[in-house]
Write a structure and sequence with these properties.
Belongs to the UMP kinase family. It contains nine helices and eleven strands. It is of the alpha/beta class.
């Protein structure tokens, strides 16, 4: 077996992906497939932490556009991420691999509070750690959360799982002439305004010297392929 390129990573999953074809809520077969991929990645020897969005349930920006304050809307979105973490945690543990949800919010009846100490402990024990609640603050995306948590726990990379196989010059689903990049610097990603992650996330990754690998989650085993250095994706680094 090929040794993994990275020994500790944060994987960023979109909440929308967990909805599957139904477009809203949690599609259990999709959650189970993602759980299988995460377990396979862990079995490669990589310590795995996961940040999940909440867009399959609530998007703070959309809620606030209908009259709810942005702060309240973002808080609702952060709570949605915790629900997604709990669903994925249950799927992982049902398959025989230990997992633990850590939340940015104090909610002892539901999940343990995120601390660097707790995250290090559970990763060292071989658990897949699910990081819910965003940063715990409004106005920050889960993309930024993934980079922040990666820097905090000493991860070697952020793996951004999307519905396309890398960063393109334009939306490849709308523009057939769009070109795919094999590699970009953080600055190029910001200046090019490539929307695969928000500018704050790219800027924080640049400041903390964290590489971001953008790849498609659509194919089973894609996470493991990236970790083995054979997957198709765009590396944003340097």
């Amino acid at each position: 077996m090929t040794d993994p390129v990275y020994r500790r990573v944060v994987i960023k999953l979109s909440g929308e992906y967990l909805a599957g074809q139904q477009g809203f809520g949690i599609d259990q077969p999709t959650v189970d497939r993602v759980a299988d991929d995460l377990i396979a990645a862990r079995h490669l020897g990589t310590e795995v932490a996961v940040v999940i969005g909440g867009g399959n349930m609530v998007r703070g920006v959309e809620v606030s556009s209908r009259g709810v304050s942005r702060t309240t809307g973002d808080t609702m979105g952060m709570l949605a991420t915790i629900m997604n973490c709990l669903a994925l945690e249950a799927a992982i543990e049902r398959k025989g691999t230990p997992a633990r949800t850590l939340s940015a919010f104090v909610m002892p009846e539901i999940s343990e509070l995120f601390t660097r100490t707790a995250a290090h402990k559970y990763l060292a024990e071989g658990r897949i750690v699910l990081l819910g609640g965003g940063t715990g603050n409004p106005f920050f995306t889960t993309d930024t959360t993934a980079v922040l948590r990666a820097a905090e726990i000493g991860a070697q990379a952020v793996l951004k799982a999307t519905n396309v196989d890398g960063v393109y010059s334009a939306d490849p689903k709308k523009d057939p002439t769009a070109t795919r990049f094999d590699r970009l610097t953080h600055s190029q990603a910001i200046e090019g305004d490539y929307r695969v992650m928000d500018a704050t996330a790219f800027a924080l990754a640049r400041e903390t010297s964290l590489p971001i690998i953008v790849f498609s989650i659509a194919e089973p085993g894609s996470i493991g392929a990236i970790l083995r250095g054979v997957g198709r994706g765009t590396i944003v680094a340097g």
